[in-house]
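Give me the 3D structure for Probable septum site-determining protein MinC.
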Amino acid sequence: MSAASPEPITTEPAASEPRVTLRPLSFRGRVFKALALTPEPPVGDWLAGLDLALKRSPTLLRGRALILDLAELKPSLDDLQGLLDELRNRDIRVLGIEGTEEAGEGLPPILLQGRPGASIEVPSIPAEPEPLLVTSITVEGSIRSGQSIVNPTGDVTVMGHVSSGAEVLAGGSIHVYGALRGRAIAGAARNPRARIYCRKFEPELLGIDRLVRTAEDMGSALRGKAAQVWLDGGTMKLAKLD
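Predicted structure for Probable septum site-determining protein MinC (242 residues):
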């Protein structure tokens, strides 16, 4: 008796799995403008100067991209961490650092091949009143977001609008014949008699002499109306402009 031949084994072809096409990743370069802070030794004196600049112009660094240039300071890793903590205490956020090879966990990234750009000068306003040559300037047109108009010795008149994100700083009064949507600081030369006038009241921040109020503190009663702002006995007053 011959052994039975084994039955052939058949298999069904496996169902074809769906093919997934992976698209290649694309990395594109971007170039943005940033403001570089350059601390100098001794750091305590530099921080004191920074505090004075922020006191003179509270919105000087607000909303700006900031880079920390350490070429002059050359700090150790611990000193660098301490400096970053001091800046955070002043609500200053650093996006990157350059001029150093110190890198550590939690530190901003190191940037290379930065190119110099335009500088921003802090208005030099004397601590005590001094005789100043009073000058007034007029801006024909509007001030766009990101622009700053500074006249520490006199009035500023804007014939158009002050856009959101723009800033006007004057030693005297500020006159805006359009909408005031940005920041306006009058009386920066220690002039409590300075005023702010506008045809359409929608500011982000107002300041006269050393008093500052943000939009959250102004309410909505005057929004969209012609208004004026002045100081009365150390209190900032806001009223409809008839």
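The first helix runs from residue 43 to 56. Let me know if you want a second pass.
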